[in-house]
């Protein structure tokens, strides 16, 4: 499809444009190549041009001009997503929000920032200004933007205490621009937040974000070793369930993940499993008897701020990245091991797959209950075997939020989000925002191939019931 990019740029001469082909290609990509399936499907995706607005007014003018010319617009933060959220399937404009990066204000317990603000900069600002920090962040904290995290993410470091982004109270306000003949600027709060939260920018462009803060802590990174995966998993479950211990991370890694793939990591026994934890210093004594009960030992501790590589950069999606630096044939899964039988299910999957699917767990609270997300590594052979591994997990009761698919429904919701779809019809009537990412827009009759799954978002699960 040919787009009138020349006319668009002429209509907006004051906007910052990127036209260099190499830079346009770079800004059209994210970390989709974690998946060999997405690498095959999306490798050729690229925009015609990149726009870099510096104000909400410029965003409004750009969307109006693109609407008039029927030019697709795909929004982008830092491009740290893993499954093609920010990749333009039909060309057009990539809207790079990184220049809108101001922290607008911070108050005790609250912060408001432009969508392009880096999460690490927000934390620095709020720590200094009001003694607070964001409740949680992705493993890409040092580069990710807050708008990109809300638009494309779902959980991260801190989710062991605070749950996921869609838990009520974890996002407080979103300012969103629609893509209509005359774009509107909306302030979403309360239940309306889910119209744009984890929508990949298909329902509107997030320009500002209001987030709650937790009290800032002088976090310690702990590296703990255990004789077996299940010793580590039981310890992690117990730690995540200790509501009185202030913590931000509980990650479990089977051998040989750390031994094979983590450069500069503390020395471990060949078969030892690892727990990586972030704990506030006053609570360390509470861990001593727990560690002993599960046959664990402390390998290392360091202030997160002093660590050359913080613990969180070995966890969540960074675990896969560290492995890919060593072995490009590795890929991964995104799995829910639901409570209350998550430990038994983990043990079953370890027996089923062994070293073909090394176990990586992140403890979270989901709907108030402690359970695990699995971001297991997969020693990839064929797409057929990958699909078989996914099927075996789901048949066993471990839903897969498929990281080898680029649509909203396949990657997490597993169903049509009726509220988001209805909002898109109003806010983007021509379907120009990040086209191809919402299956229900392109195929109103779409339904999951395996109905009855557990959904990532509680609201979606309630609707399905």
Describe the model.
The protein has 465 residues and is α+β, with helices and mostly antiparallel strands. Among the domains are: 5-96, 2-Layer Sandwich (Uridine Diphospho-n-acetylenolpyruvylglucosamine Reductase, domain 2); 220-396, FAD-linked oxidase, cap domain/gating helix (Vanillyl-alcohol Oxidase, Chain A, domain 3). The chain has helices at residues 5-11, 21-27, 36-42, 56-69, 119-130, 146-152, 159-162, 229-240, 257-261, 287-293, 317-326, 342-353, 383-396, 408-413, 418-427, 439-442, 458-464; strands spanning 16-18, 49-52, 73-76, 93-96, 103-107, 110-114, 132-134, 173-177, 185-188, 205-215, 220-226, 247-253, 273-279, 297-303, 330-332, 335-337, 360-366, 369-374, 377-379. It has a seven-stranded antiparallel β-sheet. Strands 5, 6, 7, 8, 9 and 10 form a six-stranded antiparallel β-sheet that branches. A four-stranded mixed β-sheet has the order 1-2-4-3. Keywords: FAD, Flavoprotein. One of its GO terms (biological process) is lactate catabolic process. It comes from Roseococcus suduntuyensis.
């Amino acid at each position: 499809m040919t787009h009138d990019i020349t006319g668009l740029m002429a209509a907006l001469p004051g906007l910052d444009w990127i036209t260099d082909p190499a830079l346009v290609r770079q800004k059209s990509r994210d970390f989709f190549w974690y998946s060999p399936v997405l690498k095959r499907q999306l490798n050729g995706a690229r925009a015609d041009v990149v726009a870099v607005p510096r104000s909400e007014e410029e965003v409004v003018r750009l969307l109006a001009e693109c609407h008039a010319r029927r030019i697709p617009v795909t929004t982008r933060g830092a491009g740290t997503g893993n499954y093609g959220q920010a990749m333009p399937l039909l060309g057009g404009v990539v809207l790079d929000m990184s220049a809108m990066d101001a922290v607008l204000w911070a108050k005790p317990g609250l912060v408001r920032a432009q969508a392009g603000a880096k999460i690490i900069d927000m934390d620095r600002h709020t720590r200094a200004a009001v003694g607070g920090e964001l409740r949680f962040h992705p493993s890409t904290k040092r580069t990710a933007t807050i708008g990109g995290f809300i638009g494309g993410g779902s959980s991260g470091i801190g989710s062991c205490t605070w749950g996921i982004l869609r838990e009520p109270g974890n996002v407080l306000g979103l300012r969103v621009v629609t893509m209509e003949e005359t774009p509107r600027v909306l302030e979403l709060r309360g239940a309306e937040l889910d119209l744009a939260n984890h929508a990949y920018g298909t329902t509107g462009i997030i320009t500002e974000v209001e987030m709650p803060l937790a009290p800032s802590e002088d976090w310690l990174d702990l590296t703990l070793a255990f004789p077996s995966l299940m010793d580590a998993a039981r310890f992690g479950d117990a730690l995540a369930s200790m509501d009185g211990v202030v913590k931000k991370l509980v990650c479990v890694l089977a051998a040989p993940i750390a031994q094979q793939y983590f450069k500069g990591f503390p020395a471990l026994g060949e078969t030892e499993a690892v727990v990586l934890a972030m704990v506030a210093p006053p609570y360390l004594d509470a861990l001593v008897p727990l560690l002993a009960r599960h046959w664990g030992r402390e390998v290392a501790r360091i202030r997160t701020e002093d660590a050359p590589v913080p613990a969180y950069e070995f966890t969540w999606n960074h675990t896969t990245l560290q492995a890919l630096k060593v072995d490009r044939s590795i890929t991964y899964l995104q799995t829910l091991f639901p409570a209350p039988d998550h430990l038994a299910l983990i043990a079953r999957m370890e027996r089923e797959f062994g070293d073909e699917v090394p176990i990586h767990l992140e403890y979270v609270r989901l709907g108030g209950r402690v359970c695990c997300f699995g971001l297991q590594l997969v020693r990839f052979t064929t797409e057929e075997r990958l699909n078989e591994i996914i099927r075996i997990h789901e048949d066993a009761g471990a839903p897969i939020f498929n990281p080898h698919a680029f649509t909203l429904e396949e990657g997490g919701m597993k169903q049509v989000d009726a509220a988001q779809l209805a909002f898109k019809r109003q806010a983007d009537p021509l379907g120009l925002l990040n086209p191809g990412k919402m299956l229900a827009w392109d195929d109103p009759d779409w339904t999951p191939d395996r109905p009855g799954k557990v959904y990532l978002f509680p609201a979606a699960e309630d609707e399905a019931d």
